[in-house]
Amino acid sequence: MTQTIRIINPNSNAAVTDSMSAALDPLRRNGGPSLDCVTLADGPFGIESEADSIRVAPLLADWMREDNEADAFVIACYSDPGLHMCREATDRPVFGIAECALATALTRGGTFGVISILANSVARHRRHLQERLLHPRCAGDRPLGLSVAEVEGGADTFARMKKVGAQLRDEDGAEVIIMGCAGMARHRAPLEASLGIPVIDPTQAAACIAIGTLAVAV
User: Fold this and answer.
1) For the chain, which residues make up each domain, given as ranges?
2) In which residue ranges of the chain is pLDDT below 70?
3) Thinking of the domain 99-201, which architecture would CATH place it in?
4) Radius of gyration (C-alpha) of the chain in whole angstroms
5) Which residues make beta-bridge pairs with 29?
6) At CB < 8 A and 24+ separation, what contacts does 63-70 make?
7) 58: which of 78, 92, 95, 202 lies 20 to 30 Å off by Cα?
8) Which residues contact 123 (CB under 8 A, 6 or more apart)?
């Protein structure tokens, strides 16, 4: 029986869901788990503040309580909203893309830099790093100054990501770059080629860990 990993976009922007689903295509294999990307219709159009993150947490937990078909869940927002609440709501594995991106980045280099969407994202990310005692490994966290919708659909998103990524590499000393928004997914490969250092897409990182977890659980 095919296993299912439910990858939930906590914002209501279906274009973000489509983008991250396309980025997961290389991980889809015959006989492997189904990577089912869905949109939280009642979520905000973009999760861009602590208030947005708090708002969607109980919605995600309710989804996981009611979803009897998924074998594992991925919360596809770099704020990892409701991660601990969701883990209390189900006995199935729950993965946050930020937590998984950080774990993956540590396997690729000694220091990492984060490309954030907005300036107010940086403090939220810093708190997550401090909770995990990973702040000494973070070389820098720089915002693009774009909303989630602008990141996903903006014409100059990649140019801004190249500029910020180069600053993280050259000025801050980052050896690995983490893309701090699920809506950046389609830019991972060209950004890595441009910067010449590893670039981590957090949704891909979480999906890889979820696939591995289910593989050894059977």
Assistant:
1) 4-96+204-217, 99-201
2) 218
3) 3-Layer(aba) Sandwich (3.40)
4) 16
5) none
6) 63/8, 64/89, 64/90, 64/92, 64/94, 65/89, 65/90, 67/6, 69/4, 69/6, 70/4, 70/5, 70/6, 70/36
7) 202
8) none
> For the structural domain made of 4-96+204-217, what CATH number should be given?
3.40.50.12500
Distance CA 172, CA 139 (A): 5
* pTM, two decimal places: 0.95
Under DSSP, is residue 93 helix (H, G, I), strand (E, B) or coil?
coil
Token pair for residue 207?
């999906």
Res 218: pLDDT = 61
* Tokens linked to 128: 């997550």
Question: CA 147 → CA 98, 129, 151, 152, 178, distances in Å?
Answer: 18, 22, 6, 9, 17
Other C-beta atoms within 10 Å of 68: how many? 5
pLDDT in the model for residue 207: 98
In the three-class reduction of DSSP (H, G, I as helix; E, B as strand; rest coil), residue 23 is classed as helix
99-201 shares the fold of 4-96+204-217: yes
Identify which of 81, 112, 109, 113 has the alpha carbon closest to the alpha carbon of residue 97.
Answer: 81
